[in-house]
Design a protein that fits this description.
238 residues, alpha/beta, Rossmann fold, Arc Repressor Mutant, subunit A, 5-stranded parallel beta sheet, 4-stranded antiparallel beta sheet, 8 helices
Length: 238
Amino acid sequence: MALGLADIGRKATGMRVLVVEDEPRLRASLRVGLEAEGYAVDAAADGGEGLWYARENSYDVILLDIMLPVLNGYKVCQALREDAIWTPVLMLTAKDGDWDQIEALDTGADDYVTKPFSFDVVLARIRSLVRRGATPRPATLTVGELSFDPAGRSVTRAGEPLSLTARELSLLEFLMRRSGSVVTKQEILNNVWDFNFEGDPNIVEVYIGRLRRKVDKPFGQDYIETLRGSGYRMRAPE
């Protein structure tokens, strides 16, 4: 992992981060890099230790590896949410399959990055999570009449079940979790596909079109907006 530590003028004085990572060099690199950016950092080498830290202390963000000894990252995150600890969690994973990403989000994670990753990307994700804050994450996502159950992978609008493919579900979940916020095409590619996607980026437009035909058109009101030159936004009409 390349750690770009150039001063970007966004020092995080007063912010506290927990890093839970079993690989010593990566754990040390993240700690050094974050401290250089002004964060106070605690570090744990396994899931059990990380869970203890998260329960005993207050953090602005938790960086949580998935493949950990004692308790894996999924179980740590799930335990925190069951304890009503809503600290934003950024999952660090060497896995890049759709279902690994879906499981991370379903167990309560807020975002994820796939190894190897850029340190600047991690910083940007941390800043985004800090802005979002530690708000409760309901088991069911709701935007207006649209309801999505991540665990059951089921969607309804106005009580009517919708039939979506796995990729359409992932895209819809990404948009709903960021309801009211504009997301770029690249952010969608990075999160719904992955950072190494080398296909046609216009695939995003194709899948947005598919979602609109299933989620919006039958109901006569558009929840998915296109902001020309900026990206897309999910929100219920006023």
